[in-house]
Amino acid sequence: MRLYLLSLIFVFTCLFSCTQTAICQSDIPESNVKKWWKEAIVYQIYPRSFKDSDGDGIGDLKGIISKLDYIKSLGVTAVWINPIYSSPNDDNGYDVSDYRGIMKDFGTMADFDALLKGLHQRGIKLVMDLVVNHSSDEHEWFKQSRTSRTSPYRDYYHWWNAERGKPPYRYSLFDVNHDAWKYDSLTNAYYLHYFSRKQPDLNWENPKLRHEVYDIMKFWADKGIDGFRLDAFGFAAKDTSFPALPEGYEKNFMPYYSMQGNLHGYLQEMNKEVFSKYNVMSVAEGAGNSFKDAHNLVDADRNELNMAYPFDAVDMPKPEGYSLLRFKELFSRWDSAFANKGWVAVFLANHDQARMVSRFGNDSPEFRELSSKMLSTFIMTMRGTPYYYNGDELGMTNAGFDKIEDYKDMAALNEYQRLKNTGGDIQLFMEQLKFGSRDNGRTPFQWNGSTNAGFTSGTPWINVNPNYKVINYAAEQNDPNSVLNYFRKLTKLRKQNQLLVYGKYNELDKTNPDVYAYTRELAGQKMLVLLNFTKTAARVNLSSNISTAQLVLCNYDKVPQKNKYASVVTLRPYEALIYKL
Ligand code: GLC
């Protein structure tokens, strides 16, 4: 009888909870609809600098393959790899000369297949860059396009015939004169390049070009890759009548370049042709010019992309424009704008940025480890998909080169030349590079304390950061309290707690200039995250008592003393605490 009653209760409970689930499923906000790419922890690999297998000083695919177990050991679930396609390397692979080929420096297609297989065997997905706002000027399409005005490839790019006079000014981000039109005498015409002269912009208004791109995407999707990151795609659509733009527009060019024309139409077409046919995720580079733009890019009912990648935090002017209040305010604003619909990436660094700890933490020997761990705690406990840049798990820092000869980034070198040509302030520029250059994030991965940090047996393509003897994988691997092992704890925690992925975010003590405090909450469970962003002790007012809270993670070796009646908590310098409430 007892058994009978128990089974009746069981059946009723099941029925009840099923109805509940049914109601919940249809009622839950779009943001809480489960997707693998929302639950992913993305690890970004800069292949040129990760691991060299053949001694030519350049990282390669075999190098990455040799580190697959390391990548797995991090607990990440997806890898985003920067471009590995054939390229003359004007912009380190962001100038593609063959979208179906592998860059010689990096290896062969067989290496790629082995890499993909090795990742998948370890349950890790692979996201690839799709660089189709522009190609290389050495791509066959451009070579053909240049040859004659009647070439079938002419309209794959944007040309302005010189007899019409000079085209209206367009700003170029990387050009030595900041001029996006390059004259080509072969056909007496100018071509457009928003980036360098070797990166001519593709003409998305041309349906033939668009379908070529979809075929390329299918080629990679058929190989089994798991996603695309759409490089600079916000710039792809243009008003091809090229009207004059207001004088000085280049100081704030985004509203004139990003999200123009029929961009959404192209993305919807891309979605229909490619994304809808494969189990691949798609992430924008950037997020448009407003929340509305971002929603239009990624809300599920738009059928465009899966997630936006907002630049607001890394775009805060360097270094003086940063304040924790601004930082908190902007992450909170993004969170609330996406609480119900759409999805965003959360990150503090990538290959175009200064190192995370040098930028937002403190890279002095005293605080480097603590502040690295604290920043990782932030990334791994926010709502949104974390994108974590290789080397940050070791707490790698800016190299801050002094000499221009040490810089390799074409963008930096062209700007240096421009300032020289125009009598600009070189000294100031060198100071700015030291902190903000993209090369800071591109120095070789520090594997161990041997020559060249164990990255290569040859001469590295860019100098290794001299601090590799102290900051390296070998030193951290066996230290249970290292930045590396702390990161592993964080990935584990995130994977074990869906509330860290989907849970509601609520900021506490908003006006506190030193501490970032927030809760995450899902289905009756709650976690509290406290982060001291300063090098001194700082207090946070939680307005409710957390004396019964259970400490889940702390970035100090010694856990904090239990503060019995705590609603005001004092945090140690750069302390990070996660509690279960
Ligand atoms: C994106 C890439 C950057 C590249 C640029 C041009 O911003 O992240 O590295 O230089 O596009 O392709």
Q: State which percent range the strand residues make up.
A: 5-15%
- List each distinct ligand once: alpha-D-glucopyranose
Number of strands: 19
| Continuous helix count | 18
Give the overall form: globular
Q: Helices and strands: which structural class?
A: alpha/beta
What's the CATH class of the domain at 504-580, please? Mainly Beta
In short:
The protein is of the alpha/beta class and 581 residues long. The protein has 18 helices and 19 strands. Among the domains are: 1-33; 140-192, Oligo-1,6-glucosidase, domain 2 (Alpha-Beta Complex); 504-580, Sandwich (Immunoglobulin-like), CATH 2.60.40.1180.
Description:
By secondary structure, this protein is an alpha/beta fold. Among the domains are: 1-33; 140-192, Oligo-1,6-glucosidase, Domain 2 (Oligo-1,6-glucosidase, domain 2), CATH 3.90.400.10; 504-580, Golgi alpha-mannosidase II (Immunoglobulin-like, Sandwich), CATH 2.60.40. It is built from 18 helices and 19 strands. A 7-stranded parallel sheet has the order 10-9-5-2-1-12-11. The chain has a 5-stranded antiparallel sheet with strand order 13-14-15-19-17. Helix 13 runs parallel beside helix 17 and helix 14 (410-422) packs antiparallel against helix 15. The chain is globular and about 80 Å long. Mean pLDDT is 94; it is low at 1-25. The structure holds alpha-D-glucopyranose (GLC).
